From TrEMBL:
Gene Ontology molecular function: any one: hydrolase activity, acting on ester bonds
Pfam annotation, one family: Esterase
SUPFAM superfamilies: alpha/beta-Hydrolases
Gene3D superfamilies from the UniProt entry: alpha/beta hydrolase
Key word Signal present: yes
Name of the protein described by the UniProt record: Alpha/beta hydrolase
Domain of life assignment: Bacteria
Record family assignment: Belongs to the esterase D family.
InterPro entries in the record: AB_hydrolase_fold, Esterase-like, Siderophore_Hydrolase_D
């Protein structure tokens, strides 16, 4: 009987202990990147709101000098990558410091919807059923790259010039995939918008290769293209065996497209244009961006090592 009573007492004690509320855990603290800021920007002409992410160099608070500025699109992914690579290249490889500015997607839009509209140069021909919107009740939108480029120049540039010690004579554009198309739109419209372009895996297949046509049109009207351009792409961004190459996403050989585009630039012998194309072994469309960005910075920024 005593043994049974002891067991019942022990079970009651365990049950009471398990029913006792545990002490509340400490509130979680959001992770932030050092020396970064977020600024809200209203795109007046576009009637949309965006955010601009700004990463300042380590020495910014203790110096008085001005810094080159890196503008990177697809900022929700690319900004922390670019900011950290730029910082490491300075700290461990003696690379010149730079302000990194990330351009976010439009407020209220999904990333896919925002970039499809803002980064593409045209509305795709004969593709009404190929593209689908991930925004319920909204049809896919394309072809506003020219307007978005004007937003960068008219709204973002003045914000950065007024708010930071930025050397606006040394501006670098960084874009990958659709972002690379946006960079080409700027290059073939007003190349002086940026001094250096880092273009990774540009989607040259888009709209049946419309950028090839636009480069030919630019060449017919211009003899110069004052800019330096670093093109980078993964060696695996080629056409799958058994497929015939075409100007379509499904049958595009992106490496061949890029080499063809570079060859056309070279054939036109634009005054003031310098280009580099680098194909990164064993990399594909998803993995190549950090390498493109690293080598693209090295092609332009100064280094002490």
């Amino acid at each position: 009987m005593k043994t049974l009573l002891a067991l019942l007492t022990l079970c009651w004690s365990c049950a009471a202990a398990s029913a006792t509320p545990s002490a509340p855990s400490a509130p979680s603290i959001p992770y932030t990147l050092d020396n970064t800021e977020v600024r809200d920007v209203h795109a007046t002409a576009l009637k949309r709101d965006y955010q601009v992410f700004v990463a300042l160099p380590d020495s910014y608070r203790t110096s008085t000098r001005r810094y080159p500025v890196v503008f990177v699109v697809d900022a929700n992914y690319a900004f922390p990558v670019a900011r950290n690579i730029a910082s490491r290249l300075h700290r461990h490889a003696g690379m010149e410091e730079a302000i990194v500015v990330g351009l976010s997607y439009a407020q209220g839009d999904s990333g896919s919807y925002s970039r499809g509209r803002d980064y593409t140069p045209s509305v795709p021909r004969a593709s009404a059923t190929r593209y689908h919107s991930d925004m319920p009740g909204r049809a896919p939108a394309f072809g506003e790259a020219a307007a978005y480029a004007r937003f960068i120049a008219s709204d973002v540039f003045p914000l950065i010039a007024a708010g930071y010690r930025a050397d606006m004579g040394r501006k670098i554009f960084v874009g990958h995939s659709y972002g690379g198309l946006l960079g080409l739109q700027v290059l073939l419209t007003n190349p002086r918008t940026f001094e250096h372009y880092i273009l990774g895996s540009p989607s040259l297949w888009f709209d049946r290769g419309v950028m090839f046509d636009r480069e030919q049109a630019y060449a017919a009207a211009h003899k110069e293209m004052p800019a330096s351009v670093f093109f980078g792409i993964g060696a695996r961004e080629t056409l799958a065996p058994g497929k015939t190459r075409s100007r379509s996403k499904e049958q595009a050989d992106m490496v061949a497209d890029l080499r063809e585009f570079q060859a056309s630039l070279a054939a036109h012998r634009y005054r003031g244009l310098s280009t580099t194309v680098k194909v990164f072994a064993d990399e594909d469309h998803a993995s190549v961006f950090p390498l493109v960005f690293t080598h693209g910075l090295r092609a332009y920024l100064k280094s002490t090592k």
